[in-house]
Amino acid sequence: MSDGPVLERINRGLPTLRRSERKVADVVLADPHKVVPMTLAELAEAAGVSQPTIVRFANAIGCDGFHDFRIQLAQSVALGIPATQSVIQAQDDTGTTVSKIFDFSITSLDHVRRHLDLAAIDAAVAALAASTHIVFVGLGASGIVAMDAEQKFPLFGVPCSAPVDAHQQFLAASTSGPSTAFVAISNTGRTVSILDTVRVARERGAVVIGITGDRSPLAELSTIPLVVESLDNTDVYTPTISRLAQLVVIDVLATMVLLRRDASALEDIRTMKTRLATMRSGLHHEAVRDPNRPGRP
Amino acid sequence: MSDGPVLERINRGLPTLRRSERKVADVVLADPHKVVPMTLAELAEAAGVSQPTIVRFANAIGCDGFHDFRIQLAQSVALGIPATQSVIQAQDDTGTTVSKIFDFSITSLDHVRRHLDLAAIDAAVAALAASTHIVFVGLGASGIVAMDAEQKFPLFGVPCSAPVDAHQQFLAASTSGPSTAFVAISNTGRTVSILDTVRVARERGAVVIGITGDRSPLAELSTIPLVVESLDNTDVYTPTISRLAQLVVIDVLATMVLLRRDASALEDIRTMKTRLATMRSGLHHEAVRDPNRPGRP
DNA sequence: CGGCGTCTTGTAAGTTTGCTACAGAATCAC
DNA sequence: GTGATTCTGTAGCAAACTTACAAGACGCCG
Questions:
Q1: Domains, chain B
Q2: Digit-coded pLDDT (tens) for B21-66
Q3: Where does the record place the HTH rpiR-type domain (chains A, B) (predicted)?
Q4: Which residue of chain B comes nearest to A64, CA vs CA?
């Protein structure tokens, strides 16, 4: 009962609440922002119940008194209203829509952070740092993540590739070896071509890091499964959130691999960054080169 | 003084604080998480000052009493410690590094949300909804964002393209017209080839939506400048955050354009999504097709 | 349908917490 | 070195939160 953000807990515990406590829950859920600065007496007034009922309500949803409840509510609200509360509707105005999407993205990232397997991260970092080259594969939205990774990782001097279509991916798997780190990205973890590719990579002895949304076939097949559990709900209006979390996880991996390297690698990056800044201004003279290389204008 | 998260305000107001108040500030900044559940008396004890000093401290940094301070602190902490507090260091353990990167990503998204120009969003949505086709351009990390947008927008039935290199982009600009929505993405807003491309697009009469990090040349050149102000600090270790914010902005635009459409478009997407789910399982049989199309496995 | 038991809710008192007025101490200016 | 000003702590007060208890509501079984 005491897991997760307060608002989620209220929703979950709704059926077990007494009638008056439920009135309190309704007031809180109706507009959490309004409740945050309220005093106990004010909330009692607003819900039409007595003050002790508020305290009992707070205890019922797993808080240690009203103080604790208010603090936890404030934190919940700061992270945005949970997804269940923020279904995007056609009649919402611009500000509301923007808020909902950002709130959802932020809440989701927070959720991923809390459910990340640190041991798996460590293992993945070790594998990546030990590899002589890295292959990133993904299709659709996950393909975007793979390309992003391909941009970020070569900074360490390790050759990277991110083959675009399933055939190229299969080929890359076929030519991989024990010193290859093979990073497969699939939110569903059930895309057949990715699974086939991963099987081949493992047969060739590559270390496979599987970034996926839950305990899926891909996770089973991977040497190091990395579950990035995002709150991808089924509402059509709600945009895909899994990419964001996957990108941040890539950031984490890249940063930690970098931290493993010595200061010289760091220096390389500094000089690279300054060179990039100067070349960027003259980019149009040599625009034919591989567009993925130039960096991040 | 009363703008921004509390911790930032404390940092900013540090010089104007009295000596005892400063002791309080030190305690708070040293470990904000510890302070959140503290009572006024406890914090006074911890800082080695009297209780009224705490109250004066709270007022000094723009809070309305200790109550308000505690709530605001709780909210600040929920969004992660501000970037200034969380420089990633080599000796950090895995959990710390993960926390810092996620915190920073989340804080940054929150910052962007607060600084987004809603009028510009509205204008962009109107332009996108009115266009007959949409072109997304960006290089490097922004190129990734452009490709993501290309995956997302065709859902509405409007043809989209995201030319990959500078030449192709220039070509797309040259063939654009008044009914083209031209979305240029560049965090610096100073990449020369992008600026050249945008100039051409405008000459051809296209509506140019410029997504950029600050009031840059690109913003000046755009019909509708969309400033996505992320907290990209200069620390080498700190990963690029601008992509995330840009992706979320793309989500917002896509969602809002979709909301403008009628229910039929919605139905199209529902059926598309279910079809996608079934086809995904058999994808390897027809993997030669354009890998960007299949969706988001 | 009515009485009894349990669960629920509000009243009231008690305790903690946060706030304010005031006075002493320190600091700075002259 | 003295005076004025600013800062800091002591003490008391008001408000908020909590607990104990009793009245009321509800359901169950006779």
A1: 6-78 (1.10.10.10), 118-261 (3.40.50.10490)
A2: 888 888 888 888 888 888 888 888 888 888 899 899 888 888 888 9
A3: 4-80
A4: B37
